[in-house]
Amino acid sequence: MSAQQPLLSIRGVQTFYGKIQALHGVDLDVYEGEIVTLIGANGAGKSTLMMTVCGTPQARNGSVTYCGEDITYKPTYEIMRTGIAQSPEGRRIFPRMTVLENLMMGGMVAGNEHFEEDLRRAFELFPRLKERQQQRGGTLSGGEQQMLAIARALMSRPRLLLLDEPSLGLAPIIVAQIFDAIRELNRTDGLTVFLVEQNAYHALKLAHRGYVMVNGTITMTGTGKELLSREEVKAAYLEGGAH
Amino acid sequence: MQARQKDSLLVASVKDSLGAAVITFALACVMVGLRVDVASGRGAELFLEHRWLAVAVAVLIVFAGRLAMNIFFWKREDPPSLNLSGLMPKGGLGANSSNIIKYGLLGLAVVLPFVLMFWLGARGSRQYIDLAILVLTYVMLGWGLNIVVGLAGLLDLGYVAFYAVGAYSYALLAHYFGFSFWLCLPLAGILAAFWGIILGFPVLRLRGDYLAIVTLAFGEIIRVVLLNWYQFTGGPDGLSGIPRPSFFGLEFSRGEGGFASFFGLDYSSIHRIIFLYYLIFAMALFTNFVTMRLRRMPIGRAWEALREDEIACRALGINTTNTKLTAFALGAMFAGFAGSFFATRQGFISPESFTFLESAIILAIVVLGGLGSQIGVVIAAIVMIGGFEFFREFEEYRMLVFGMIMVVIMVWKPRGLISSRTPSVALSKNAKGISADLVQEGHG
């Protein structure tokens, strides 16, 4: 695959919830080794786009291509086995299962040859999880749960990591920790990251490129720095200054 | 100040209790006060009977009870904590005491028939061994259903359908082809699993309540078909003369070639009962063994994850449909085994034995025991089935007591008798069961 071909390519995607159209023809590319962020207000369709990539709901029109392969109408569980992993919105860890079991679930479809190694890497990235490995997922704090959700997604050794609002409801210092971990993953492991965020400032600072979504369409795109300096972005998403 | 507070407490309590009494009165007027009866003296004429005294008693009981609860518990500033929960096994039942119960029960189950025989003699112990067989049958059914409801979190209200499939598989195969019990046992399990898949495939995209309704309907369909397909199943007459199991080819019969003469024992009908006891005991243990093994394997962990969060499962690349189907089929298979055992024990089956009530009892055993807990199922089965039989003398109050026990357990142990979940995997040696009490937040 040439460097020019995107790892994930979304073309003209339209997604509906029943009769309501959530996405009005979205184009978006994620290249190998990039961190790409998608920012926008509540209800703009950010999470819908991410879920469309995962196949629930499926796009009605348009296409989602991953590694040159059309995955638009594949069932979710098959998509999630092709090297895409997701930390879903609201984390969705398994609350009654232990941290270790949660991580094992993440590595389940990948088989268990690399389990020990992947586990070590996950604990290296998030030492807190190591301390709490026998604790139930539901007893973790919000930040720890988010770390667990990311670590769980990583257990399947993905090429592309989808993160849906990892900063949701977390204290700024925890958000910084989590974003540091994402940066570290991208730098050292070369992981490609597609990040959906409301926390526009942090997301754009972290990302190589960004997209802005309004009412189901992409209105702006550019590098993270570019977008951060645009007046419209500042006005709409960075009100109240950097936080 | 104190007195005024007390006064307002009393007033509020009385008001509340009066309200309850009025509601009771309204309900009781129609439901208790009037009774249609058939006059015995004047032919089959219907007449209306008034029972106002009963209404008054009902209203008084509700008023007094509610008042007492209000004053002593609900409206008090510092309601006394009901420390009755101390009487029940604690949620965080330590690994040790849990093990003691487990092995204690296991040991008891192994020696039970002989203890009873020694104590009460062959004649006297028979009914108790019969009861033990019944309890063990329900333990096995509970363990089977625990896979579906407890582990995979699929609410199945028609579990008895697979029990029926197993029982009828054996009865019909024996009836038409003369197959023996030992041949039919696996066949019954396979057929039940097959039906589990047939049912499961179209409905497993449903969730929660919807799934429950469909499984309920399925259970009824099976029963109604069995009831109406007269030529094949014998309909309401059922099937009789179902062959008894043999002990490695030895029949439990009088005379030459029977079990008793082969081992040089005097013939006694108790031999077969004891054999049946150990048979169901072994089958139940097999169920438990398979479940416990699967729980530690990826598929078992996937079941539990599915119970916790289906969307997350899909996001992790788990094929949720297949995972549910395996749970459903496996649960059905064990019900099938239990069903063929039931058929061979009774020697006679009819659709009567497979009503919705059976499903409800099995489900109650699983829920009261604590979803997903194997030992909880055993305790619940002993309490429910054993208790049910022991209270037979109290005929009319039996259901009342039964209902009250269930309510009491659910109030004090809302997650069932054993609510701790043992992790399926541990890196360190001192892994403990994690009490449900620790995690109430976020997850109902």
UniProtKB/TrEMBL annotation, chain A:
Pfam families: ABC_tran (PF00005). Keywords: Amino-acid transport, ATP-binding, Nucleotide-binding, Transport. InterPro entries: AAA+_ATPase, ABC_branched_ATPase_LivF/BraG, ABC_transporter-like_ATP-bd, ABC_transporter-like_CS, BCAA_Transport_ATP-bd_LivF, P-loop_NTPase. Residues 8-240 form the ABC transporter domain. GO terms for molecular function: ATP binding. Belongs to the ABC transporter superfamily. This is Branched-chain amino acid transport system ATP-binding protein.
TrEMBL record, chain B:
Its main location: membrane. It is a multi-pass membrane protein. It is found in: Cell membrane. Keywords: Cell membrane, Membrane, Transmembrane, Transmembrane helix. It comes from Pseudovibrio ascidiaceicola. It holds the Pfam family BPD_transp_2. The keyword Cell membrane applies. The keyword Disulfide bond does not apply. The chain crosses the membrane at residues 20-40, 52-74, 100-119, 131-155, 175-198, 210-230, 270-291, 325-348, 360-385, 397-414. This is Amino acid/amide ABC transporter membrane protein 2, HAAT family (TC 3.A.1.4.-). CDD domains: TM_PBP1_LivM_like (cd06581). Residues 13-111 form the High-affinity branched-chain amino acid transport system permease LivHM N-terminal domain. InterPro entries: ABC_transp_permease (IPR001851), LivHM_N (IPR021807), LivM-like (IPR043428).
